Amino acid sequence: MSATDNKKKSIPVAPVPPAGVPVNLLSSVAPPSELPNFVTASPVLQKPSVIVPVSQSVQPAAGDHAVIDSSQQETFSPAIPPNKGEPTLPIRSPEDSQATQSPEPPSTPEIDKIGDIMPGSGLLTWMKGAVSSGGILQRVAEKAKSSVDTMITTLDPQMKEYLKSGGDLYIVVASDKEVKVSPIREAFQTVFGKATVVGEAAQSDVTAAQPVGYAAAYAAAKQRIAHVRSTCAHLTNNVPVLAIESYLQETVSDRWYEISLVLLSQPSLGIELQLQSQGTPVPAAAVAALLAATPADYAHAQTGYALTIGSVMADSLHVPHTEWQEATTGVSRREILSLAARSLAGSYKKLLAISAAET
Fold first, then answer.
1. Looking at 99, 134, 155, which one is the last position of a domain?
2. What is stated as this protein's family in its record (predicted)?
């Protein structure tokens, strides 16, 4: 018998109703056949990795084969299990757990404040120590202060004297003229950082109004310092006093120069410093005019002339008597005195360091 005949025989055929009986369409439909089953039996599992809560402690012996019944196999459920979110651990042997467990990081002590690792009472003490020890914080602070001071003095140049006044150095200039006091103050504040420089009026009546030669200028400067110390009772021998005296010097025949002598005296330390400034050339005709203006019976004719070189040069150049050096050479008297005083201040600072080291 062929396969076609078998298929035909397996199909049920509905009975044909007799003639004259109404036909029911539903009765002619064959009953449904059994649906095929595609679900296969689950295989036997060995050492299943069933996730259980931490509270449970299941430790099967190594090498044992656990057989799970199909009735106990987990089935899918759309509901959230009651242990959702609880930490779970895989079922492993103690040896596997020790092998795979990650080492714990070394314990570090908890630091509540910076004072636990640094001496002092905290951050403020550390900052104070870093600034006072001369480290980077001190350099940053000094740089910031210098920038602020530069901005202030640029906006108001008169604030420079206020910002740099003070400190341990106090100097008196034997003159009340700002053209002499200002360059001395600037020079000493540049060298020492901070210095208080004041001027006191002083007169010299032992030499001519315009000294000629170094000896006459030195005598006039000494007289000015002595006058200041005698009139200012608050000055002691420990206070340095500085005097400036301008004089004429003939280097060769008819070659004249105006030079300023800067003299500093501090008797308590036995210090007396002398320094000559840069010379400004003076025409021989101007010196001849001074000689002609000096009377023959002038009391100090041996030490110089009755008129100053500044008055003669100012009349000749039609400038103030304090500006004739700049009109002649392009360098002002203030700049000349400032450079000379800076050199004198540097020498004075070295002497103070030597004196301090000896004591």
1. 155
2. Belongs to the PRRC1 family.
Residue with tokens 């004196």: 355
User: What single-letter DSSP state applies at residue 19?
Assistant: T
Pair 222, 338 in one domain: yes
Q: C-alpha angle 158/161/164, rounded to 5°? A: 140
Q: How many CB atoms lie within 10 A of CB 34?
A: 5
Percentages (nearest 5) of helix, strand, coil residues in the chain: 40, 15, 45
Residue 259 structure tokens: 């030079």
Is residue 215 predicted with pLDDT exceeding 70?
Answer: yes
The pLDDT tens digits of the residues spanning 10-64 come to 555 555 555 555 556 666 666 777 766 666 655 555 555 555 454 444 454 444 4
What percent of the chain is predicted at pLDDT more than 90? Answer: 45
Query: Could you give the count of Cα atoms lying within 13 Å of 234 in the half-sphere of its Cβ?
Result: 4
103 in any annotated domain: no
Q: In angstroms, rounded to a whole number, what is the distance separating the alpha carbons of residues 274 and 128?
A: 43
Say if residue 146 is in the same domain as residue 291. Answer: no
For residue 167 the two structure tokens come to 């400190």
Q: At what angle do helices 309-317 and 284-293 cross, to 10 degrees?
A: 120
- 144-200 per-position pLDDT tens digit: 655 655 555 555 554 555 445 556 789 999 999 988 999 999 999 999 988 899 999
Classify 146 in phi/psi space as left (phi over 0), alpha (psi -120 to 50) or beta. alpha
Structural domain span for residue 241: 156-358
How far apart are the C-alpha atoms of 170 and 239, rounded to whole Å? Answer: 7
Q: Are residues 138 and 193 in the same domain?
A: no
**What is the sign of the dihedral through the CA atoms of 305, 308, 309 and 315?**
negative
Residue 35 domain-assigned (yes or no): no
Exposure on the CB side of residue 164, measured as CA atoms within 13 A: 23
Average pLDDT, integer, range 107-126:
49
Number of compact structural domains in the chain: 2
From residue 66, alpha-carbon distances to 48, 73, 95, 114 in Å are 8, 13, 19, 58
State the Cα–Cα distance between residues 299 and 302, nearest whole angstrom.
Answer: 8
